[in-house]
Amino acid sequence: MISYFTHTRDMYDQSERDLLHQLADRAGIVADYYDIAGTHHVTTDETRRAILAAMNVRVANREELIAELEAWDHRWWLRGCEPVHVVRLGREAGSWSLYVPCESSEEAALHVQWSLSAESGAKQFERAEGPGCKIEEVRTIRGQRFVRVVLAFPQDLPLGYYSASAYAKGDGRSTETSFQLIVAPERCYIPDELQQGVRWWGMALQLYSLRSHHNWGVGDFRDLGAIVEWAGKRLGAAVIGLNPLHALKNTKPYHISPYSPTSRLFLNDLYIDVTQVPECWMGPDVRRRLEDPAFRSRIDAARRSELVDYDAVRSIKREVLELCYQAFVQNNFEGVEPELIPKTDRGRSFRQFAAREGELLAHYALFQALEEEQQSAPSASMIWEDWPEAYRIRNSDVMEEFRRRRMPRVRFFQYLQWLAAEQLREAVNKTHEAGMPVGLYHDFALGSDRYGADGWLNQEVLALKADCGAPPDAFAPEGQNWGLSPLDPLRLRESGYRYFIQLLRNNLRYGGAIRIDHVMAIFRLFWIPRGLPPALGTYVHYRDDELLAILALESVRAKAVVIGEDLGTVPDWVRDRLGSAGILSYRVFYFEREPWGGWKPPAHYPAQALAVVTTHDLPTLVGYWEGVDIETRSALGLFPSEDARNAMWADRHREKTGILAALKSEGLLPVGLSDDPGQVPTMTAELLEGVHQYLARTPAWIVLASIEDIIGTRVQANLPGTLDQHPNWCRKLSLTVEDLVQDPRFERLATVLRLTRPLV
Fold first, then answer.
1. Domain-by-domain residue ranges, the chain?
2. For 23, 376, 456, 637, which has the most beta carbons within 10 A of its beta carbon?
């Protein structure tokens, strides 16, 4: 107690700068860091102050800093306990601290009653402590005496989330408090087959890029089902890797990236196959629209387009789906809006879906309806921060009145999510029918558009006055700003991680694996105060022990493998923690080098990993070999000088030499092919197979081959650092789905992969 008051007294004698540094340190803001090149960066006071302000911490002057430091040091004493505790299954359960106002120095004066309730609401545990609770610590706050007591958790609680509530009374004073207890497994889900030595392979694709004779200009869930049946049943693939399927606004140029969605909680309704919606063939208005020659020509134009025309596809699908919804209501409900009563099984199925999704879907659909109305108003407000104040608060009376007035439109957006979920679930069922041990592998984006649905829905846990990105590196010497608002680690924890849990559950339910983009964000994330350059950003730490526990629990419940995208500046301790948590490392062939620069032999890859040749942000294999990415960057003026361009060409020549040498050392260099890259100007089918067989020989648990690589696509899906200068996220495959399933190149490569890493 003496040391605490000494510390408090000393606080008033310190400089404002020292106080700022102490507060930033408590909030997890690092004092300095090293970038990938080993350059030392020191966090500026301007950055500290701006990040703290983004966390809603008052830092304008010395008085505010002192007040915030005192509030920080007293926060659990005044709250009663910490908001979250974690217990790992199989370990000692441990204990928790309860803080109680108590004027008496007699331990016998203190009584505690506390309980744990399971997610179902059923009481799992209840205990009375005292009189005679042992006092571990005493503190006086604002003239009031508080004591801290330590209470033991019960042993052998089943996995899950528990709501803990405590009532304590000491010397006539009482307090009530609550927290969330997370009982989690030691690690994420890992199938027994992988632990027993089985190695799997699969294919990766960008769903929007699929062409087919039936789709309306963008790949859809019906196309995905066809790929699943072909790859799973005919080729023997264990997994299909997908781009993020998160909800997008689907408008160019800012809202088509799957890594900047409006919501990570829900699905992109652009992927709905309209022709598989039952109402498409039941409503006369729908049939008339589909039979209209002018409308058919719009579909044909979108289908023929070499690039995905998001605006056109969104427009034609939305027109028909709105007519489908009208037919759906007419055929399946009775009563008058807003109170509709289902009268058919299909109507009841929709009502059950909406009930299961609960407030999350209700609020998401409410935002969609509100955004639509606000953007079509005479004084259009394009972003929710510019809406009238009452519309920025989702639980206001004005919002409730809007919901009642616009309920048909709100229900329409719920209907779209229902259709998308039904069709994606059908694709999942096809993976089971095909005997695929993993099935669909989903990509989970780092964040979402701050002006989208998730930004509006989760204002209380997002730092909307900050961006996240990456520190300076060779690729981006000034650093990168990804334009996404980071989660505030303080407010997120205070909320019991509700949003994080919801995100995982919604994204784990449609397949057997998930790839977490920028998995380092579980540990630390590079924050950039709004308005400052990326180079002035710094790292902010998160409670990784709690986030990893939640991830492990949700993974085990969903029986889904977790892959962490651990590229870039990744400290060794982060990879160690990920490995012990059962998270697979993400290994890209281009980057897997020995310290001296040569390519790692297959045996040097880690087993607990997913290995790929390339990613959506990197050149395709053909594009890499032929330097298409270098020429594209040159044409767009992205090189600072001709010398920089020539240096990249020289590096590429050395890299190709290294790849050929690596293949040769494994006996995989195609017969008759030179190991001099100057003699191998193009990527041959045999060389492509050799690269994939090289990966297949690694002990990595899963290997993915990209459809784009197999068919020889030259241009990458996304060119980082560009927005509308390059057709990012728009490119369609050169072949239709109908052609892909007949292409002999897939059968040849599949045979190689099956022989190298059999499913059983």
1. 2-77, 90-184
2. 456
